[in-house]
Protein: Peroxidase
Organism: Deinandra increscens subsp. villosa
Amino acid sequence: MRITALALIILSEFLIGISEAELKVGFYSQVCPSAESVVADIVRNAAKSNPQLPAVLLRLHFHDCFVEGCDGSILIDNGSTSEKTAPPHQGVGGFGVIEDAKAKLENICPGVVSCADIVAMAARDAVALSHGPVYQVQTGRKDGFVSKDKLAERMPDVNDSIQILKQKFIAKGLNDRDLVILSGAHTIGTTACFFMQDRLYNFASGGGPDPSINPGFLPELSTTCPKTGDINARLPMDHGSGDTFDIHILQNIRNGFAVLQSDAALMNDPTTRGIVDSYFGVLSPLTSSFEADFVRSIVRMGRIGVKTGSNGNIRRVCNSFN
Ligand code: HEM
Ligand SMILES: *[C@@H]1O[C@H](CO)[C@@H](O)[C@H](O)[C@H]1NC(C)=O
Ligand SMILES: *[C@@H]1O[C@H](CO)[C@@H](O)[C@H](O)[C@H]1NC(C)=O
């Protein structure tokens, strides 16, 4: 009896071991010691000429991980059915920087560093460049063999209800706290007015704005994104602090200054609202840290559906299968 139980434990640990990612900090430290610094240098240099780049790279990691796992599937160019072209990935970018880093790494240590890991490292560097927390990124992901637009259908959408957003995160093994904290990534970067149209002009059945927008914020939003204006015009998602990675985004969300509808929706549910509020209590400075929690959540996000062993490989270039 005891032996059977022990055997079961060993068997289940073995099964977990092969189904879960074998990621670790410093995966490349022996096999390609300069991997992390090469990526960091390329990201830093590219950000000098494009200040928007850190935000773009952080978003790229999210979109990679939520479809088919963190496996570089979003990087593939394979005609009109590749994942990259799916509507939920609209505006996702940073591909050139990932490709530059890959090219440099293929020169130094060919066939060693995966594109999926480059995306994860670049996101980490992007957060640091934006004055956010400096964290150690786990690596060891392999690149996937699949890239299909249909697989992106279940991406979280800006106009999903809070219930749907929660479900979509749970489906990826992320809880309500991860949803709140990772939405905090909107502390940097911008959105196109395209994503604001429904919130500003078509929210209620008879039209009109989302009533959760602070009346003091509405005129500014509708001036930046007029009803018949340019849907490609952009505005910071963290009003007043869009270049700096900080907790200001959660303060804005609490005060009705959320820009994205999905961020505002965090206040529509007692659990997620409670999590937002927990950063602003009298004792909060002692008990919680947005930065530390963000690190924990993004490391968890970086483990979604990771491919190891023969489920993946190391691409030679990131935008096509070997
Ligand atoms: C909760 C579900 C989420 C929804 C519905 C959502 C939606 C959006 C939308 C609509 C934009 C504007 C895109 C554009 O106009 O180019 C955006 C931008 C962005 N998102 Fe999210 N997002 C979510 C979660 C996340 C997560 C988990 C991360 C990263 C951890 C993230 C990081 C970013 C960043 C950094 C930008 C700015 C991109 C830029 O400046 O180009 N988002 N998001
Ligand atoms: C590439 O696209 C073609 C045409 O749509 C498709 O048949 C094929 O399965 C795709 N390749 C991969 C590996 O996804
Ligand atoms: C939800 O937002 C998308 C843009 O992300 C828009 O294309 C779509 O029409 C919206 N759906 C609804 C039901 O409002």
Summary: The first helix runs from residue 2 to 19. Residues 19-155+302-311 form a domain with the Peroxidase; domain 1 fold (CATH 1.10.520.10). Residues 157-159, 195, 198 surround 2-acetamido-2-deoxy-beta-D-glucopyranose (ligand 3) (CB under 6 Å). The radius of gyration is 20 Å.
